[in-house]
Amino acid sequence: MGVVNVTPDSFSDGGQFVTPEAAIAHGVRLADAGAAVVDIGGESTRPGAAPVDESVERERVVPVIAGLAAAIDVPISVDTTKAAVAAAAIEAGAGIVNDVSAGQADPDMLGVVADAGVGFVAMHMRGEPRTMQRDPQYGDVVTEVIADLALRLDAARAAGIADDALMADPGIGFGKTIDHNLALLAHLPELIAGLGVPVLVGTSRKTFLGRLIDEDEPAARDDATLATVVWALERGVTMVRVHDVVGAVQVAAILGALARATVARREVVESR
Ligand code: PMM
User: Fold this and answer.
1) How far is the CA of 117 from the centre of ligand 1 (A)?
2) Domain range enclosing 82
3) Cα–Cα distance for residue pair 23/65, rounded to 1 Å
4) Domain CATH for 10
5) What does the pLDDT read at residue 14?
């Protein structure tokens, strides 16, 4: 999943793609580079970010989604917590709603997604972006994220969203310390087994990586991001959400070739 933030203030690419033309061109580049989904967001969710008005968010994302839908063949997701923005984005051509609140921020969200029959990414977040990084606390973060997400997936199914339309995401950096993020990544197989739906992970350029490699500049964290992409794909995640699509696609191609070689050798040995 390649990221296009149509925002002036996202932490890693804020301000780069504020005009629809620039955002569409970037989305086309990501699709050409091999993204399986292009994710369009009009509200920054970085820690401390102020919420934006529904009409502002809609005006940012709709022209970009409409333009991209006409230009690329891969599905487009809209990164929003607002049902009205999701509805307008779906109307413009989005096929997936990526909600960092997993339907909790807006009581109409799950119904809009169910009625449209589109995909839904339920991401885990404790609190809200403005305050979520103020001393987040868990007993066992892995167990608690699985339990919280299972409730959100149940709510999505109860609203009428089909099981095969669902993905879950542990929400790296959303109400979590560095240790919480590392524990979730370290125990991805447990998370995947516990959730029973495909899992998406977004580590791209995030603060915890910057702290681990002592790098303040988000765009200089792509190599660190790729380490997590290798790790996550090797442990069974279905999709990674990244800014550097070229790098992630190369990683996936090499891991795929190595996985095929592993199976091929096993077959040779077993047939002897
Ligand atoms: N991270 C951000 C925004 N949206 N959506 C999902 N599903 N998972 C994430 O980890 C996620 C997200 C924040 O990163 P950005 O500002 O680079 O978009």
Assistant:
1) 23
2) 2-271
3) 9
4) 3.20.20.20
5) 65
Please name which of 231, 143, 136, 242 lies closest in space to residue 195, comparing C-alpha atoms: 143
User: pLDDT digits over 21-60, tens only?
Assistant: 999 999 999 999 999 999 999 998 887 788 899 999 999 9
Average pLDDT taken over every residue of the chain: 95
Ligand 1 binding pocket mutation candidate from 79, 120, 149, 180 (most atoms within 8 A of CB): 79
Burial level of 253, CB count in 10 A (0-12/13-18/19+)?
exposed
Nearest protein CA to atom 2 of ligand 1, as residue: 45
**What is the structure's pLDDT at 165?**
98
| Count: domains in the chain | 1
| Atom of ligand 1 minimally distant from the CA of 98 | 7
Q: Which atom of ligand 1 is nearest to the CA of 11?
A: 16
Q: Work out the average pLDDT over 215-233.
A: 97
Q: How far apart are CA 223 and CA 228, in angstroms?
A: 9
Helices marked H in 80-136: 83-92, 109-116
What per-residue confidence (pLDDT) applies to 73? 97
Residues with CB under 6 A from ligand 1: 3, 5, 10-12, 41, 45-46, 79, 98, 100, 121, 123, 169, 171-172, 200, 202, 204, 241
